[in-house]
Amino acid sequence: MEKAIFAGGCFWCMVKPFHEQPGIESVVSGYTGGHTENPTYEEVCSGASGHIEAVEITFDPDVFSYEKLLDVFWMQIDPTDAGGQFYDRGRSYMPAIFYTTEEQKQLAEESKQRLDASGRFKKPIVVEILPAEPFYPAEAYHQDYYKKNPAHYNAYQTGSGRAAFIQSHWRDMQ
To answer: Is 10 annotated in the active site?
Structure first.
């Protein structure tokens, strides 16, 4: 098993797309990239901790490769927006790929370059590729939010603009 860490705005919206894939053992909502230990949701949202909402994925690379995880990641975000994602603004919602190995770093950089060169987006791809830092699981009520609160999750996915963006930019890949 390997780990991958992706930040794509609200972590609630980043769990389900990965959970649905074969070879995924777990997807944990949490925080990374900050300067305090064990931050709370309130500290992260306020910007006080410097953390970013992210998901940590434990996966079997023989069943679902890191390259495939990258493909899923790109299709969940607006890779041209470094200021947050959709309704959620600020550093704590910025998109980023946190690599855990040099191979992941290389694969992420190649994937980003391919997407940028594809012409799918008019603006440049601005997602940062950063070394993994300590990952802190979020509070229990945030875990598997799409399962625990499906009506609110679906309303949020739609109301934030994420669902429409994904549909308009990736409908040919779904």
So the answer is: yes
Phi, psi of 92 (to 5 degrees): -65, -10
Q: Which of 4, 5, 7, 10 is catalytic?
A: 10
Question: In this predicted model, what pLDDT tens digit does every residue of 103-145 receive, in sequence order?
Answer: 999 999 999 999 999 999 999 999 999 999 999 999 999 999 9
Biggest distance spanned by C-alpha atoms of the chain: 42
Which residues are paired to 65 by β-bridges? none
Distances (CA, A) of 106 to 51, 75, 146: 24, 19, 32
Residue type, 149: N
Angstrom distance (rounded) from CA 14 to CA 10: 7
Residues contacting residue 165 through CB under 8 Å, at least 6 positions apart: 78, 86
Residues 18-39 pLDDT 10s? 999 999 999 999 999 999 999 9
